[in-house]
Amino acid sequence: MSYDDKLDQALARLHDEGRYRTFIDIERHKGHYPHATRTRPDGSRQSVTVWCGNDYLGMGQHPVVLSAMHEALDATGAGSGGTRNISGTTVYHKRLEAELADLHGKEAALLFTSAYIANDATLSTLPKLFPGLIIYSDALNHASMIEGVRRNGGAKRIFQHNDVEHLRELLAADDPAVPKIIAFESIYSMDGDFGPIQAICDLADEFNALTYIDEVHAVGMYGPRGAGVAERDRLMHRLDIINGTLAKAYGVMGGYIAASAKMCDAIRSYAPGFIFTTSLPPSVAAGAAASVAFLKTAPDLREAHQTQARILKMRLKGLGLPIIDHGSHIVPVMVGDPVHTKMLSDMLLEDHGIYVQPINFPTVPRGTERLRFTPSPVHGPREMDALVQAMDALWSHCALNRAEAVG
Ligand code: PLP
Description:
Helix content: 40-55%
Strand content: 15-25%
Largest sheet: 7 strands, mixed
Radius of gyration: 22 Å
Bound molecules: pyridoxal-5'-phosphate
Number of helices: 14
Strand order of the largest sheet: 4-12-11-10-7-5-6
Shape: globular
Distance between the termini: 51 Å
């Protein structure tokens, strides 16, 4: 057996299915995002507009964030130099956790190096704290939650996506005395649909279950202070553990959970994904804290974001393109085939300087491959016009169906 042959076979499988992923090499320019410069594989350079980033509000280049990061970098140096327990807890980490606890109206928050790690580490640790725990997990939960649930060694039940009746059946079928937690998302990032937060909290009350919500695609963007959809719907107090990221709307990096002081203390004490890894650099924590604090008082930016999403959806619908519209800020255009999706993405990039990455299996189910646009307040009318014209031309050029939008 040759190890190289095995690697070739594994990669060939992806090429055969048309879902081999290629990096697009871009350099963002501070103050000019969503404009960036792409370096092609042959070394030539091209100006592009980024339409698939998760820096939803442009906070990655905001002066408030950058000056907090510069200050912390100059004051303390590059890395934290340790795990949280061994010299890696600084005033910057503590300040950010306090900012996040306040954001979500919880007693405490716990930082991780990403929201992926926060989900994985927390969900895989919970059965150690609650022996016999059953996790009820939405079928379309993010890979990080699936991984945490898979690794935790406890019992799991998968309920059909957003199907509270199915969830009820599963809860009712289990021993009432056994500890339970329901894990779901507030916004599912590939379709842009909302989780039924209130109905799930009601079921949790009825069956004495805890609740775990991933607000990764909502924090910074929804609710009066940007705490997410649960804040918007006045349901935050009913959620036991709230997960969020500092890498998308907050424009920096890192992830967290917000919960009771006792819950955070227990996770902090038991989760290997928290204990055995170096903490975030202080400058990153400082930038994230500045971003969270800033967005607590920036409803205008949130409104501008929603307006941009509404305009883009309206214009793409006007062309008869098959977009999914659940009323969130995410704009998926369905293509339904990995090869076509990649081809459209390549043509948008090469011919129009528009960068939108193809979304394939396993991120979405096979047959639902798509282009996923993320409009933001930093995409102006010029960028929007260019995108709409390019999509119109491409749809005609490729003789693709112009279908009714799905809502
Ligand atoms: N949860 C959801 C729903 C996500 O979409 C993502 C990332 O794309 C994550 C968690 C992980 O977030 P992070 O990038 O901070 O690891």
